[in-house]
Amino acid sequence: xxxxxxMEGPVTLSEEAFLTINCTYTATGYPSLFWYVQYPGEGLQxxxxxxxxxDKGSNKGFExxxxxxxxxxxxxxxxxxxxxxxVYFCALRGLTGGGNKLTFGTGxxxxxxx
Amino acid sequence: DAGIxxxxxxxxxxxxxxxxxxxxxxxxxxxxxxxxxxxxxxLRLIHYSYGVKDTDKGEVSDGYSVSxxxxxxxxxxxxxxxxxxxxxxxxxxxxxxxxxxxxxxxGTRLTVT
Lengths: 114, 113
Hints:
By secondary structure, chain A is mainly β. Chain A has no helices and twelve strands.
């Protein structure tokens, strides 16, 4: 079945550092890929998406490129801020199964310090 | 903002009691979902709905039932709550191109003592 693997956290960075959170997936064909962000005490928010190979999703300074050859969708940001501290989830919508269900990774906590 | 509300936002209940959580949406989307979130497990799908009276099980459906009698409301019931059902519960809807994008409510923190 479909699966998503994320790097374990917490990831601790200084403000203005470069961020990479790794995400790899297992799925047949070309799934749609997503990054969600969850701030403390809140629900998940869609951060960005990509629906086909080589697509780059971007939002709020975050980017991720759909790499079919490495089955990866790594999240990057050039200069993080304290306000980016949150939990980040990678997810995919596979081609099999009904219900438009998403498969989520276990999440990566990011802490940004001054 | 996808217009999703959940009630209650917090609840403490005793083992063996029934509990119903409500999810309400204002935008008439077809698909609705219930997840639970636990440390180390990410989000796990409990049940989902693809229309009024149309529901199906997710990966962790044991001990839970759902109902959807109106497009805007999706209810999650714990028939007899157990301590293992202590969790944060999120409702979601899907929309967008091909209805693949999910949008989440604020969550309900349930504690079973």
